[in-house]
């Protein structure tokens, strides 16, 4: 899925925007900090003792670590996993830099107790293969004792460090927690077109990468965040309406009983992105979909009209039909996707404009409101006091403070969305992303 910030380190989801809405976002991969580590030694026995499953991410294509999964027929449909009751949170590898958000924060905030799954964002897609996004953050960065999940510092000679080692420690504390490596995102989706030309080779590379023996037991599957199949995101894809289903079929055949999931568009407008590919056929190969039911509206439309970025329902004056969660879920169901394979999406952040005089939605603006990391976007943990809620519309909240107008979800609106999702028979929820919540996990604790 995407990261909220339009920065090189933050690939981003967006349900319905045209390429011109993301001109600030860079298409080139982020610069990588390299550490000096020896990967030719034996795996660290102490780390491997914490692992239970073999399904993980890696720095490049490797030999398959789990031949049993590889032997599954390519036509096998997902059936051993269900989506019921899932709470999936995204953890971004670039969050360890400016945001100073680390795996330990998942534990200390209480979020780990609520999560069923973590999607680790992002791996890249290059040359038709799955590749690492940031080796330094992923498995090279050294952690001190006070930064570490278990209070033990990394040593200079241990074979695995970084987020991967910390996530293994988190899994030791929470044995039922599953972790998937998510590939693509807004910035790195351009590589899927080439991957779709040889789905079997792509699936092989991803399987070997996710199951690299250096971090055996960390990952329980793969998440694909292709923005967007046979449609336009940062770049335009012309792989055809069958490419996405062919790719997920190949992934299922290779990953077998491991998890295969996909973040998908939420654009339910007539002729929109959900109509550009065959999500019904692909649904049989994934354990669940994560339709990105946020970022429907934002300050890429600099002059407005102001509108909540994550409306649950339509409302009088909404700028575009089909841009709300209810419409997205209804359209996917009409297309033949079971509700049990759909998770509804939440944004742990707000989007806003400046130069706004009207308190209610639909006002004009002069541009994006200032944000800590990027204009037009801010974390919930900052907005709740910076610009407190003044009203609700379409099942979400908005706030008018001074000349700024923001929209974001609160514990109250999240709880109400959970009630709606239960009535719809959905399989659970997911959110972007963990660092936007308060230190005590105020938003995640409101998820039902």
From TrEMBL:
A GO MF term: endochitinase activity
One Gene Ontology biological process: chitin catabolic process
Top EC category: hydrolase
SMART domains named in the record: Glyco_18 (SM00636)
Presence of the UniProt keyword Cell membrane in the record: no
EC number: 3.2.1.14
Catalytic activity: Random endo-hydrolysis of N-acetyl-beta-D-glucosaminide (1->4)-beta-linkages in chitin and chitodextrins
Gene3D superfamilies named in the record: 3.10.50.10, Glycosidases (3.20.20.80)
InterPro entries, alphabetized: Chitinase_II/V-like_cat, Chitinase_insertion_sf, GH, Glyco_hydro18_cat, Glyco_hydro_18_chit_AS, Glycosyl_Hydrlase_18
Boundaries of every GH18 domain copy: 85-448
Domain of life: Bacteria
Biased composition (Basic residues): 21-32
Region (Disordered): 1-32
Keywords (A to Z) from UniProt: Carbohydrate metabolism, Chitin degradation, Glycosidase, Hydrolase, Polysaccharide degradation
Family: Belongs to the glycosyl hydrolase 18 family.
Protein name (Swiss-Prot/TrEMBL): chitinase
